Amino acid sequence: MENKKLKEYLDEFKDDATLHVIVANPQDRKIYVPYELNMICDKGQKDPVLCIEVGQPQDMDAELVEAAMEDERAAQPELPKLKNNEERKEFLAKYREWPVWFEVPQAEETYYRYILPDGSAIVICEYKHYNEWWENKYVPGEPEGTLTVEYLLEPGYKHLHNCKTNQTALNRKLMEVQRNGQ
Q: Stretch 116-143: mean pLDDT, rounded?
């Protein structure tokens, strides 16, 4: 954020207004209670720096969770009217247009998530795969490729691993969501 934008934002409020700071990780639905806010002023410093000391993470309340979900929905492309399985497959194949939910750089995994109108979500995990038998022609194609794993997260799910699914189930879910007018 540029200093100019921050000044413009702060100028919208009275001089004696209290500054509230929210430190959050919306993807994990966690907030961190700020204990102390410090301005760092060192000689020769070119940019303003704020240091926020925080405590242990806490779960967001329902209102903050819903606000985070709305922000995430706004960042994803609109769900088109999908008339048949071919269109549903095409929608799922364009998962790279969805927002990145999280990444695991050590495993070269990227998780894309699309939140459906009924509160469930489709997650596609894309990961690198090395075909070690490529040189011996046991596996056709490139020695390194990209594979995917599909997940369907229903409200209240506990573990991502338990939500593993397949394209047929995702097609069915998309059809159900659109049939119910959600």
A: 74
Strand arrangement, sheet containing 23-25: 23-25, 30-40, 49-59
Q: How far apart are CA 92 and CA 152, in angstroms?
A: 12
51 within 8 A of 40, measured Cβ to Cβ? yes
> How far is residue 17's CA from residue 151's CA, in Å, rounded to a whole number?
45
Confidence band for 110, pLDDT divided at 50, 70 and 90 = very high
The residue behind tokens 């309340």 is 61
Residue range 11-34, pLDDT digits in tens: 899 989 888 787 877 767 788 888
What residues have CB less than 8 Å from 47, skipping those under 6 apart?
Answer: 3
- Taking the model in full, what pTM does it have? 0.66
What does 35-76 look like in DSSP terms, one character per residue?
Answer: EEEEEE--TT--S-EEEEEEEEEEEPPHHHHHHHHHHHHHHS
Say what the pLDDT of residue 165 is. Answer: 96
Helix (H, G, I), strand (E, B) or coil at 172: helix
**Is the distance from CB of 178 to CB of 170 less than 8 angstroms?**
no
What is the 8-class DSSP label of residue 95?
G
Which ranges of 40-166 would DSSP assign to H, the alpha helix? 62-75, 85-93
Please give the pLDDT value at position 166: 95
